[in-house]
Design a protein that fits this description.
The structure is a single chain. The protein is α+β, with helices and mostly antiparallel strands. The protein has a domain of 219 residues: atp-gated p2x4 ion channel domain (atp-gated p2x4 ion channel fold, Sandwich), CATH 2.60.490.10. The chain contains eight helices and 16 strands. The strands form four sheets. Strands 1, 5, 6, 7, 11, 12, 13 and 14 form an eight-stranded mixed β-sheet that branches. It starts with 6 loop residues before the first helix and ends with a strand. The relative contact order is 0.16.
Length: 402
């Protein structure tokens, strides 16, 4: 067996040493070559023009890259006004004002307007038959379980089967009696006149970084103006008083259809302010949309409703209540916005980024000249020059000498 190393291994080892030496002991320095070519020159200027257009047009003019930005801090209060009159066999002639249909009286950044209701009067605690359904129908006491409370029960079963009407028996329960029957929702809506109610929205904003405050009741607005103005996107876009029907129609919805089972609406207020200009140019912009997407092909649990009760005592001192299942429209007031103001730091950062991007034109043109054009070999000879180490005493060069 030969003890001499394999020649192939030696060549591979030598090649690795040469590559390592090239990596460690060679230095690249840029060389400027002036190429007199209309094609290459025009391409270079076009790339530079595109980069300048992006930096100046998009970064500085459109995105305002010379400004520092802050997000809005906001508070919202609302006041609804309007009166409706109803005349039914159950309630008789009745006037409904703000205290009746705004429940609760105040909410954070929202308000609820009752448009429809199912009312159950003169309830008191006692024993009464449950509303008939698949879980409460019975034929004997064996069908009723003492102490059982179902998911949709109105009370606690006593274990007795009692007559609900002449043809039906249901389980007896301990509850507020008579129990509510909400199987039929009034249509058209009970308070259909709510379409003409109005709401005053007061919105105060603050940009803490710039210590800038403003409100949507503008400085030139007077008390006399507020008494007669109503928001209109075209003729009066800055009036803070809104007709409820107009809010819904602006969102592309039908108020009377929405009023039957309720809905959730958004009143969006956007404050985008350029604080390099006068404060009078910082103005609110209003928009509206429906938040609960209604699918007509899948009408399960639609709208918005809840229950509340009004308690009182009768002549004998018993606790009584009137139960109301309220359907209506919840209006959520959402405030968005940013404010910008000139600042030297983002300005210098974006200028530096733009200058760095101009270098892309050089790299792109180099790539095309050295790798794509037909004369790429000729340009490569002019671009690169190889110089031997002067300290080795040769002082010679190889490659292109031009």
């Amino acid at each position: 067996m030969s003890l001499l190393p394999d020649r192939g291994s030696m060549d591979s080892c030598s090649a690795c040493c040469v590559d390592l030496g090239s990596c460690l002991f060679e230095y690249d320095t840029p060389r400027i070559v002036l190429i007199k070519s209309r094609k290459v020159g025009l391409m270079n200027r076009l790339v530079q023009l595109v980069i300048l257009a992006y930096v100046i047009g998009w970064v500085f003019l459109w995105e305002k890259g010379y400004q520092e930005f802050d997000s809005v801090v906001s508070s919202v209060t609302s006041k609804v006004k309007g009166v409706a009159v109803t005349n039914t066999s159950e309630l008789g002639l009745k006037v409904w004002d703000v205290a009746d249909y705004i429940v609760p009286a105040q909410e954070e950044n929202a308000f609820f307007v009752m448009t429809n209701l199912i009312i159950t009067q003169h309830q008191k605690q006692g024993l009464c038959p449950e509303i008939p359904d698949d879980t409460t129908l019975c034929t004997s006491d064996a069908d009723c379980v003492p102490g059982y409370v179902g998911t949709h029960s109105n009370g606690v079963q006593t274990g007795k089967c009692v007559v609900y009407d002449s043809s039906v028996k249901t389980c007896d329960i301990f509850a507020w009696c008579p129990v509510e029957n909400d199987t039929e929702v009034p249509k058209p809506a009970f308070l259909k006149d709510a379409e003409n109610f109005t709401v005053l929205i007061k919105n105060n904003i603050w940009y803490p970084k710039f210590n800038f405050t403003k409100r949507n009741i503008l400085p030139n607005v007077s008390s006399a103006y507020l008494k007669k103005c109503v928001y209109n996107r075209i003729t009066d876009p800055f009036c803070p008083i809104f007709r409820l029907g107009s809010i819904v129609s602006e969102a592309g919805q039908d108020f009377q259809d929405m009023a039957v089972k309720g809905a959730v609406m958004a009143i969006q207020i956007r404050w985008d302010c350029n604080l390099d200009r006068q404060a009078s140019y910082c103005l609110p912009r209003y928009s509206f949309r429906r938040l609960d997407n209604r699918d007509p092909n899948h009408d399960v649990s639609p709208g918005y409703n809840f229950r509340f009760a009004k308690f009182y005592k009768n002549a004998t001192g018993e606790d009584m209540r009137t139960l109301i299942k309220a359907f209506g429209i919840r209006f959520d007031v959402m405030v968005f916005g940013t404010a910008g103001k000139f600042d030297i730091i983002p300005t210098m950062i974006n200028i530096g980024s733009g200058v760095a991007l101009l270098g892309v034109a050089t790299y792109l043109c180099d790539f095309i000249v050295l790798h794509i054009l037909q004369k790429r070999n000729y340009y490569r000879e002019k671009k690169y020059k190889y110089v031997e180490d002067y300290e080795l005493g040769t002082g010679s060069t190889y490659g292109s000498t031009s």
